[in-house]
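Intended use. Records such as the TMIG1 protein entry shown here are meant for training and evaluating sequence-to-structure methods. They are not intended to support clinical decisions.
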Amino acid sequence: SAGLELSVNNHAADFTLSTELGPPISLSCHVYNSNQAEELLWYRGDGQVGLKDGNKVNISNICISPVNESDNGVTFTCKLARDKSVQVSVTLDIQFPPRLSGEETLHVEEDKDVTLSCNSKSNPQAQTSWQKDNQSLTLQQNHHELYQTSEVFQLSIKKVQKSDSGTYTCVVQSRLGSGTKDFHLIVEDKKPGFPKEAVIAAVVVVTITVLFGIVARKDKIFKVW
């Protein structure tokens, strides 16, 4: 295979192909500097792509259709069958806008923690922000916490108070588009709990009562045994 070369879409070296959602993508692999029939192989990541007869020798074409978000970052590689070290790879850069919409209502008891989470997946990665009642949210230290990955944008509120009630909006913006999601946060009155002291006192009273009952009937108990 010395001197043999491959090209994919006229690229003789590994490259990245940028495109948007929608039209299918065609990849064409060619063999150069060969004086015989050469079989070609295609791989999607580590998995081999099935090719029909007539689409394997010297020239091989594959089509990705429909192109969707799951294709982003996937690498397709064309290899020479008898020497897999001769290869060219193309990595797909599928660009798509954030897909974020809808609303959600959350009821939270006062002094509890709550987390608002929205899917911010997009390519290129979007700019994200939070609003409260249509105004930029002012973050308070030890009260608000932000967490973000390439796919998730979260706002956590620690020990919510009545003043935290309102509509929170997750805003995600990229050059390809934008999206929002509303969270209607309703902070409810704190539910009264059982006083620990009263519970402990009740347990002690019951225990003492049982013990006195056993002592009072000890003669009959011993007589049975």
